[in-house]
Amino acid sequence: MTSNGIVQKLWNYCNLLRDDGLSYGDYVEQLTFLLFLKMADEQTRAPYSKAAIIPKDLSWNSLKDLDGEELDRQYRHILTELGKKPGMLGVIFRKAQNKIQDPAKLKRLIFDLIGREQWLDIEADVKGDAYEGLLEKNAADVKGGAGQYFTPRALINAIVDVIRPKPGETINDPACGTGGFLLATHYYISDNYDLDRDEKRRLKSKTLSGTELVAGVARLCVMNLYLHGIGGDDSPIVEKDSLAQSPSTNYTVVLTNPPFGKKSSITVVNEEGDEAKESLTYVRDDFWATTSNKQLNFLQHVKSLLKIDGRAAIVVPDNVLFEGGAGETIRRKLLNDCDVHTLLRLPTGIFYAQGVKANVLFFDRRPAAEKPWTTKLWIYDFRTNEHFTLKTNPLKREDLDDFVKCYNPANRHKRKESERFKCFTYDELIKRDKASLDIFWLKDESLEDSANLPDPDVIAAEIVEDLQAALDEFSLIAADLKSNSTTQK
Description:
By secondary structure, the chain is α/β, with parallel strands linked by helices. The protein has two domains: 129 residues, N6 adenine-specific DNA methyltransferase, N-terminal domain (Ferritin, Up-down Bundle); 320 residues, Rossmann fold. α5 packs across α11 and α8 packs parallel to α15. The protein is globular, with a radius of gyration of 24 Å.
């Protein structure tokens, strides 16, 4: 069966369960639990005949002859007990709950959908692509809010194509979401190098790692990697707050798209018993500046994660490029201490989360030196006069071909300027107000000539994004004001 066929089959059953109030996210989560149980059971049988990683009383077989309340009770028991286990089992099943209220539908899901397939017989890329398809459908579900954990795969593939990860390198994503960057890296190395057995084993279990704050997203990521043949008994994904402390390990390559939202905050209960948001500030010796701006903190964290001469690509919102105060301090230090060589200005309409104006910043970490490491920043304007929508004109990998060509990954020191690709020296950048990297030079054709206006649905989508971004900013200001007034009482 093709990956599209599997996705369609799995998704058709989701529609049935949605009648019971199950969200797309809940459905993908339940599939994750049951798929893992079934595949773990298949591994113990011929021709694999591996030792069981799940105790017999918690295995797939323990569900087979049950129905009704007994089935519901045993399934809940399995989820609870496996969530206490270490390693991959613990990450996948931690805080797991049965969201399927009707035991008859649970039984049908177990026997008709999951139980009928021999999942280990299906090639890794087929079942992996099928699971990716489900994750993308889940990301597209506006109400679920899962879109912030899903980076457009066309963008990920272009970033990996210019970073060019190699066998033997270590690759990390400190905000890994559902694992897009890690998967793309795995396939890039597999497809572009003739690996021997040891290199394949290393790629599977020693090359890729990530961190994810949200337990439910971490489990989806681990399952996504597992279905693609990545990882072993130990989970390559750690569930924790990446920003909480300095990294204990450094990596050759860091690729990441940190979650959207400008400020880090925690929910507290004040003296009146009301919930309030308080800004969360990370104080770390390895940070250049202390700030509650989550995106600026992730930028500093990525620098700390890199080995000397390590390479990074990080998706950042526009405010990281121009914000004053800590933002200016961090930009000046980054330009001085690292080789910040490329900035890709992204178009609107490519992310599932609305209100996002984003960029990709590429830089290499360098050792301490007297002179600034950045000599030239090359900026590719992929935003001006580019109009994408998720449904009618989604971003495709070929849309980024010109950027990849201009980047010249074979030798980025031999680049040529073009209409969209311009070079700015360190001195030019550092003299700008607040060392702002928010630079445009192309004219917006829609402002020059009404005949060049994009389609109404594109205009509407861009207006929504602008309004959503503004509302998010006002919400943060309102939350800060409320928090301050509560503190002063």
